[in-house]
Amino acid sequence: MSEEIEIRLSELRDAGALMEIDDLVWTPAITPGPMVKKTKEQYLQQCPPGNQLVACLGSRLVGYIGFDNPTGLASNRHVYEINIAIHPEFQHRGIGMKLMEAMKEQAKADGVRKLSLRVLSTNQAAKAFYERCSFRVQGVLPEEFWLDGRYVDDILMWCPVS
Q: Pfam families attached here (predicted)?
């Protein structure tokens, strides 16, 4: 990739581009339910600035990792639950790996010891990517979803932050 990838915390001005990526990436093939269209204000309430690391090529936002504590409990603040999305035009260019490396550094700086995520068993490409990023299966919810005429497992994965 000839152009340098900049990774930074999300800002208010990124909301439109983040919403566009969500619309393109979160399809029925990789998410257990339809994405509900949100207004920009609703999106910002759910995904406030600073709760994503974004990847930019020049002035174009091309991917993100969202992160937050899975609960509001003090005893769970050492964990970030994450989700990652790369604009389809920019997939398979190493952007996801760079975002994941930056996420681990951000987590370490924030005192977080564990990253966790969920992936459908039918999304083998994503599962393989997570495994390349040192995630491992921590549990499986068998037949958790009925999708496209079949039961699909929900795989819970985790990675220690060291």
A: Acetyltransf_1
Write out pLDDT tens, residues 105-124: 999 999 999 999 999 999 99
CATH number for the region 5-115 comes to 3.40.630.30
Q: Which of 18, 31, 46, 8 is nearest to 117 (CA)?
A: 31
pTM exceeding the 0.85 threshold for the entire prediction: yes
pLDDT at 1 over 70: no
Residue that has been written with the tokens 């550094």 in this structure: 105
DSSP assignment string, 93-146: SSHHHHHHHHHHHHHHHTT--EEEEEEETT-HHHHHHHHHTT-EEEEEEEEEEE
How many other β-carbons are positioned within 10 Å of the β-carbon of residue 125? 11
Domain boundaries, the chain: 5-115
User: What are the structure tokens assigned to 30, written together?
Assistant: 């990789």
